Records
---
Amino acid sequence: MESLLTTPFLTALLAGSLAAGLPLLLAGLGEQMSEKAGVLNIGLEGMMLLGAYCGFLGAWSSGSLWLGFLCGMLGGLALALPMMLLCVWLGLNQIVVGIALTLSAEGLTALLHHVQFSQSYPRLPRVDTLPLPLLSEIPVLGTALFDRHPLVYLAILAVPLLAWLYRSSLLGLNLQAAGDRPAALDAAGISVIATRSLAVLFTGAMAGLGGAYLATVGAGLFVPFMTSGAGFIAIVLAMLGRGRPLWVLLGALLFGLCLSLTTALQVAGLRVPTDLVQMLPFAAVMLLLLFFGRRAALPAALTRPYRRGER
Amino acid sequence: MTDIPQIVGRLLQALLPLLLALACGALLLLLLERDPVSFYATIIERGLLSRLGLQESLTRSAPLLLLAAGLIVAFRAGLWNLGVDGQFLLAAVITAALAPGLAATLPPWLALPLAMLAAFAVAALWAALPAFLKARYGVNEIITTLMMTFLGISLANLLIKLPFNDPATTSPQTLTLATADRLPRLLGSTVHLGLVIALLALLLVHWAMTRTALGLRLRILGANPLTARHVGLPVTGLTFLAFGLSAGLAGLAGAVEILGVWGTVRADWNPAYGMLVIPLVFLARFHGGAVIFFVFVFAVLSIGGETAARRADLPNYFLLVLVALILVFLALTEWLSARPLMRKRG
Amino acid sequence: MSAQHQGKAPPLIRFEQVTKRYPGVLANDAITLDLHAGEIHALLGENGAGKSTLIALLSGMQQPDAGRLLIDGQAVRFSSPRAALQAGIGTVYQHSALVPSLTVLENLMLGRRWWQGRRQSATRRRFTALCNDLGVRLPADALLSSLSLGERQMVEIVKALWEGRRLLILDEASAMLTSAAVSDLQRSLTRLAAKGMAILFVTHKLPEALAFGDRVSILRAGRLVASRSAADLHRRGAEQAQSEIISLMFDAPSTATAAPAPPPSFQEKAPVLRVQGLRAACGEQEPQLDGIDFSLSAGEILGVAGIDGNGQRQLAEALAGQRTTLAGRIELGGEAVQAKSVPQRMKRGLRYLTDDRLGEGSLPAFPISLNLLLKRVGDAPFWRQGVEQPREIEAYAQQTISAHNIRAPGPHTPLGSLSGGNVQKLLLARELEGQPRVVIYNKPTYGLDFQTQQLAQEAIRRQAASGVAALLISPDLDEILALSHRVAVMAEGRIVGIVNNGPDARQTVGRLVVGGTA
């Protein structure tokens, strides 16, 4: 076992879990806001994918990573807009619309990518990191945690920020009420529809950003279907996080850890099947639900469209 | 129930989204500077009118129909089984692992049904945990079935790579079922018996859901759980039953695809048919006959679409856009047709 | 609690000949009523007396058809709830408008625009000040769901008072409270009144009205039938005051148009349904059903009176088997059935006609034919070996439709397209089919047109005459007195008394309903 605890192994593990977990974190934080407000956004996978495509395209054509991120957010928003229109305004089935949006994003991005690049996969140059002074000098932890792209720091900063928003701002109250007792929010003179729309749009932007990070900083290129289920994992993380951003962060890191554990183990010369490691977090969650199932409370009005006067 | 104007109206309501989606798709093709007429013509010619293409379309329909049958059971009972892909894949792997051994020791008329039974049982078992959590604690089945799908896919891959790996091949995959031992072909075509099984299963499910006491009980549960309680239905038992049947049929889909087409499962193979069939089942409004129609249309689109896309120098994912457009228009027509009803009640 | 107003200053609010009608109902009939600053005004009335309409007019939810509202002598017109709020009228409604997953303080902040900020310390200061005004201590940072019902009620009051009100309306504020919580409420309201606030305390409980009110007004069938000051009532002694108010609230009007005479008194036979010490599983927000004892003989109709939401529905569901029995016995024809399922009780002749006709009792999207057989799915001859027999089902539906005079295009019509009266005819036909022994009727005529009402009452009488025992739950005392042999009164999940129907029953039942003793 001693051979495991070498510097390269730990560095690879920590760095890998952060890199693999970051898109999940961003999308999960976004989804959490929708769920808090009572909208289950099954289209998250599609929003990430469109974000990845737009983000890559933006970064590739402009040469600026930050413009790429912006494009990614806009891409996610573009898909959140029909979600808002169909599910929040018209009250259509959130699951059907979500699946439809994911499918359309999968098809569209693959199609557009093909038309533009026709099976070639242009790469972005390697991304510069922003080593934080002093902190990045710490052995193991330094290179793994404090020598990353600035967006990583921003995403982690978003966790306490959102936690503050939910706990200590009026908007947080409105979101909570919209998901838990929309009629009370309506009675207090605040529009449930507007509150939910805001949450859905935020989800789109965050999922798009997560996808953009995946394509630009993570992979450096766009491949059709590259999110491969990350959006659905983020939905599960958001549901399990039960309204607390810190839990989404921990969950994302745990998943990232499991995703990168196999690579790291290979670095250490050990062969453990990837699939087994990837099963661990889901298996753990299912066991938790089995034993503490009673507490898996979700917002009371989740997936229920709001119409005034209906109880 | 069977008056003609109503049927025509329903057909229109179902076809309208399809036509609108095709029109939008044509627009998209024009934007990409491709000829939509020749594109759609190729689809029809290659997917429907050519002998080989038609056979491929029918073969593709088999697993889709079985998945649809499973989804009809769950959706009519008001349960969101979004985990069919995991159930499908796990059952496929179990089938692939068992079938060669069974075929070697037993006559084919016994070996094939046994393999299918095993697939059904494994998939049904895989859905028992979400069913339990839903019935006992009311845990949202969307989240649990999604998680079980991820678990199922990983477990399937693990099984392929470790215990069921065929040492003779370079890339990890299960033992391969000899072509002679697979599901028999129909009338000298390339279409296998799985299509008949799938059609029978789907019709049986449709009949059971609409014409039997059990089906009515499940529909009552799906329509309003409060009413189910009021009339004294065993809600827990029905939940388990619906989940088990739904997942079992998805498992059967996996078995049929392996026994009929592939004979083996390679690592990381996941056609993710489930996510495509869910919208089709909605499009058909859970009606068995309509499901057959839409699944077949989809199969033709996907088989013909592969050639059409290649000829137009496009990836065949174009189909996904079409399906998504169909869904959006479906949701919109549904909303439009529901509005006068709401006004009347309001 | 002395009346502080001298009758000289103009009243804070005056109702002047205010009339409000709804289709078929005269909800408020030329009501004239004064509300004074510093006074607790208790408004008494039974179900449907017009209390809710009066509140709706005061809080701007509805506008009067005739008459006017004056504030400080000035005529006003509230076009919206907001206008009433701005005029200083705060209302605490019967149904909670609070979010359980937010803290007390957060619930009070809800409704502010997001750019206004939370102003945490200012909110806390105002909260403390209002709590002091009310003389209560409330945990500002606790989740609302962790509070007792009494504490939640106080939070509702704080919320209603938030913007500095002049009139506070409480709609059945004490309905779900324990007696300790009620005296806390009384203390707080008295303090508020002492600070010059006008309070309208709407209730159906007579003792509370007498204890709280500086003035007690009584509504009956849309009219203000009396208004007495507390001093006036006290002078005549509690006993006499109670009797007078009860007769004002419940006595049959002398001009009543030939109310149906009560059925002949019932001779006791062996009971077909006997309930002993029944306690059933009830939710946190529901009245707790406990200690239910009664028995029913064949052919007897036992009316269940009481203000809506005092456990009638829970009792019906516990008897029908939809709720788990936690303690006690339910005997049906001498056999203990409390552990039996809904269908098992149904097979033994117990039927339950629910009051939630479309939300529970039927499936509006399903055809009439299947709705008729909802409780017999799988039974012969409609299903054989589990397979539907369409011809049998259709014939049965056709026959039921014509036998019960249900207006419907045909057996395949979705039930949701029928009128309310026809839906109830259909459900009655379903529950009374076969050989029922005990039928629980939950609000059998509520919300129906006159003709269907008569029809339903006739069916109940006919069933009883043929030996079926009935439990008749109704919010309408006249209906109960017209049909029942005995009347049980429910309050807060218990039966507080059972009265034989007769000339004095109205008085006795009325006394029990408003919380007195028989």
---
Amino acid sequence: MFIRVRGGLAVLLVVLLGGCTAQTVSGVVTEFDGFAGGIGRLTALVEQHYERAEQLNRQALRHNIDFQMELGSDPEVTTPPLLGKEDRNARRAVLQALNEYAKAVQTSGGAVGTPPAFPDLVADMSEISRISPENFSVEQTLGRVQERDLLATVSGLSMALTGDTALEKIRDVLVTYHPLVEKAGLLLVYDLGSSQDESLECELGTIALMETPTLETLQLCRGGLRGLTERAVKFDLSTRRSRLALMDESDARQKRRKPAIVERILELEEAGRQQDEALRLAQMALMKMIETHGQMKAVLEEEGGNPALAGRGPVNGAGANAFLSLVARAEDQSRKAAPLLMSPTTE
Amino acid sequence: MSETDNGTALHRLLALQQEFEDVDIGKMPREKAANLLNLRRIVYLEVQALQARAMTGTTDRYTALTSEFKASEGSLRALRDWAEEARKTDAMVGNLFKGLTFALGLL
């Protein structure tokens, strides 16, 4: 059983009666804080990666167009985005739903007799109810039934955010919404995709989504944001190599530009590798998010059923700490890749 | 209209991207090189569109997604005609000829 103690502070303390210790109480709060903070940072990071892919796409297209013009051609000057407005909004909605859910869990921690305080946290969740399989290119890795199931479940996250009065305890909230957190996380992992072409090994329809897979056991096939990013970088590299190949060595001005072009090619090759690693780490952090939520749920279930078990498991911040640590690694890697990817053309 | 499915179309376009890379653009006439660069852009846009937008199914019939690819028949044909002539002396261009023929079959 939980009692919410609310003083003048916004922080809520969760007290487990029947033999619990003060450490356990603060542990639960720490876990929620860490979990929510990690999700906030991770969702911001993933959104940043979608935007970065768009920037790389624009950069590569612009460079190709510029070079064609230098050769005297008159190409169509358009740089269409990788993802349309609805597709971007669908992804933002999933990210926002996860973020708001985490904040709700954090600030509602363990109310008895009153519903979790979800509604105030919701700004505009209308987008998530409009999510459709058409907005995600997960089709290559999922069977159709699984895809529908996945997206229907993600849409269900919006239910958590409208304040279901039947859910009076945070434990019940975590138990009820764990499948949604899991599937929202998996949807994003799939959407980030893979840079490797594993399509020959893909066995559509055999992926057991109801079991919690690891990043290694997921069959991501090819595509998603990692694939889009990789192709944008390769396309830009291809244009830059063509610059070298078509360079008039007898032209002093062109010849002077050669070292800078070579430098940029090497830099961009490295940037592609670093960015792919950043996306892989973001996927790992998403998987850890699912695992951490599952641990929190499991411990609260145990404690709720048997007070003697209080304090077992990760309710001491360890689960959230591991999650936060992975988020930090993903952020570091992203910061490492950014200047290489977006450095101005100097050649 | 193409009778090819989405999965096959994607693999053909990815193969064509590689064939574009394998050609020594430095040896091409300036005008053909510029055409190649433009077709790279067009095929890139189509491949990204295929991968970024949800397909209705890898086994469903493919139809070109981007206006650029839909309107590229003339450019594809012009480069294929050049490749047909050039492949008599260059094996790599022979692959390009095949790739361009497949791409034309998608339209």
